[in-house]
Amino acid sequence: MEWPPKYHTDYHPSPEQEYWSRELETMSPADRDKTILAKLQAQVRYAYQNSGFYQEFYKDVKVDPTNLANLEEFAQLPILTKEDIRHEQEQHPPYGRFICVPIQEIFRVHGTSGTTGRPTVFGIGKDDWDRIGEAHARILWGAGLRPDDTVMVAAVFSLYVGSWGALVGAERLGATCFPFGSGAPGQTERAVEWCTMVKPTALYATPSYALYLAETARQMGFNPKEDFGFRFMFFSGEPGASVPATKRLIEDTFGCYIVDQGSMAEMTPWMSNSGCKYLDSGMHLWQDIVYTEMVDPRTRLNLSLGEEGVPVYSHTERTSQPMIRYWSGDIARWDMVDCPCGRSYPTLIKGIYGRVDDMIIVRGQNVFPSRIEDVLRGLHEFGGEFRLVLEREPGHMDNLTVQAEVSAQEYATREFNPAEFEQIRERFTTELRRAIGVSVGVQLKPAGAFERTQFKARRIIDLRTPS
Ligand SMILES: [Zn+2]
Question: Is 467 among the domain residues?
Fold first, then answer.
């Protein structure tokens, strides 16, 4: 096997073809394991031979990193965490000893913003950048993108690699690219105007941003379904695209279908978790591009299909800064599904619905914000945004209060009638208790009470004092 694989940049499937690569996407699980093992053997050997970090990190392992016999041996390599990367990059700035190519071959520098600690840096070589484009083109093809589409990328073009990854994939596929960006004052109003002029057929953004775009359009007197021309949307960065009620809301608002995507910036090609145009909820794991294991959050041992755990990701064709067995900290459940697309990949059946750190424990029950979002969006009085307030009185259990907006119409008609208002509050309380299994407090707020986000929504307000 040739490693890293060489791709022909002049290859394009014919538009009516379902697959970019039928062979890779529909092979039997046993054949796929063989393909993955061959790629991982080469990837781990290469990283071990070229990276001072991995030489040290694998110092005490019981297996031979230059000659892994099977996927079980691969699973004995230590898990890499964000803290490991931070520590290594602090000791050996800026990249750490991860870089396996001459430093002048770094083609792009990206990273995380560092809102929760020291920023992490990714150095990406030109060959890797091209392979990212190839992988994303293949996956976007599966999502339904075709060369005659126009893709609007309505996410910020910065250090954040998400928008660039979407762009390079759409470019490689041969679509018309419309890198609009986001985040500047007044930019969403301009996005509305440009959408009505250019009529892009595909949108990349976050689910929150798509809803914000629709709200802005309506305020400006447009109807997102009739005045825009979106055929489909692909999202990352938030669980919304696999939250059934949010998915339906976006699809109904724009009259299009949506596809959930995204692993982690560190793992770019981050589209290796991606739905297709048929999948109702969740994401296929394009295992031959980025290999995903599911790991128990406590024991850190591998879990079988059907179980819930933390996805751990590995590059399979990275020469510049490979990440091997990288701990995502996300929570998901994986299984095989019988998808009409015919792809034989395992699937994160409900997408990524939580973070190990975001999991709220209320009276012994695990509660994820995405579940609460799903319930709220199913209630017609809901006004569009919410916050979760966590409090703890000394010596007592944690209390969760859901602050939910009530639609402007409902609020206006009932504001002066507390009894009617109380009915809505009780309905919210009952529906939430039924869905999550424990009682939570509910406070109603007028529509627009909470700030709309152009990026990832931050909805948890943690007022607990450490006890
Ligand atoms: Zn599918």
Answer: no
Bridge partner residues of 80 (DSSP):
326
**How deeply is 214 buried, as exposed, middle or buried, from its count of CB atoms within 10 A (0-12, 13-18, 19+)?**
buried
> Taking the CB of residue 32, how many other CB atoms lie within 10 A of it?
18
CA of residue 48 to ligand 1 center, whole Å: 35
Q: How far does residue 25's CA lie from ligand 1's centre (Å)? A: 10
pLDDT digits (tens, 9 = 90+) for 69-111: 999 999 999 999 999 999 999 999 999 999 999 999 999 999 9
pLDDT of residue 197: 97
Number of domains making up the chain: 2
> How far is ligand 1, taken at its centre, from the CA of residue 340, in Å?
6
Distance 41 CA to ligand 1 centre (A): 28
CATH of the domain at 429: 3.30.300.30
- pLDDT-based confidence at residue 358 (cuts at 50, 70, 90): confident
**Two tokens at 18?**
């379902």
Based on the fold, state whether residues 258 and 406 are members of the same structural domain.
no
| Alpha carbon of 108 to ligand 1 centroid (Å) | 32
